[in-house]
Amino acid sequence: MNLTTYIKNVVNVDVDVTKVSNENLRKLPFVISGMYAFCFAKFFDKPITLMFVNQGETTVDRIRNHTIIVQDAWNKTVVVVFDNMESYTRKRLIEKKVPFIIPGKQMYLPDLLIDLKEYATAKPEQTGVIQPAAQFLLIYHLLSGHTENMNMKTVAENLSLMPMTITRAAYNLYNTGLCEIIGTKDKFIVFDEDKRRLWDKALPLLTSPIKKVNYYTGWIKEKQLRRSNFNALAHYTDINDDPIEYYATTSKIFKHLEGVNFKRTGKIVGNICVEEWKYNPAILAKNSEYVDPLSLYLCFKEDKDERTEAAMEQLIEDLKW
Length: 321
Description:
- The protein has 14 helices and 14 strands.
- The protein has 321 residues and is an alpha+beta fold.
- The strands form three sheets. A seven-stranded mixed beta sheet has the order 1-2-3-4-5-6-7, sandwiched between helices. A five-stranded mixed beta sheet has the order 11-12-14-10-13. The protein has a two-stranded antiparallel sheet with strand order 8-9.
- 32% of the residues are buried.
């Protein structure tokens, strides 16, 4: 598969590739400039050097040393491109953190947090928990169902995420058996299960979206805040509300909340609690002043209080799937 086509298919990004001039090639030792083919490119606005390896010409240690020399000469991250590679060689490159691409098979770019493979074999068993972005994507589907008719680029725009992030999230869901990914040029996420069954299947892999909480005194007006915790649970169910005001927001807003009428304090004296979430609660809440019911359920997932557990059960049963 063509390199630029592969990158476009996997992360939905167009890569501009240009030939390296003879003047630049003269900056390299002759043994290196004669051993590889080189191109310059931009990947997510990051300048890189593509170093094409002729099959079977050199060892992993030698390639790594050569990438260091090339990077020093041109001051760009070097990504090694192979036509094919044995699995043990891939493993050694990853151990040594050498960025590489095998078009149609694997892309390993640690500086850009990408490690994607083409998953043609059986899916692994569900393990651990899914990534926050994957949980965000899954709950968005469960609440709206709109992902079925959107390519990944459109889903990323709707969730205000980078295309690379949504691609990694989709493959995370795929790897845990929660969705399928179809398409070549445009990739689509397909959920085969009905929503309630999908929720039950995914639940062991889902975690609380709350990353951190702070307590404050005073009052606050912020459009991006959504009522959460017991305030939201009392809104959706029959449980009694709490006198404390609870809000959820993103990390960006969470860091800059304090003002003249809003001072950070301790839990004992605070009348307002603000939760920093791992994803944006306002997007899932849409036009509501309350956080969405599925993320709210996950906030109380580990709560063993009988009243809370009864409210959580009502929360899910009342949801229009």
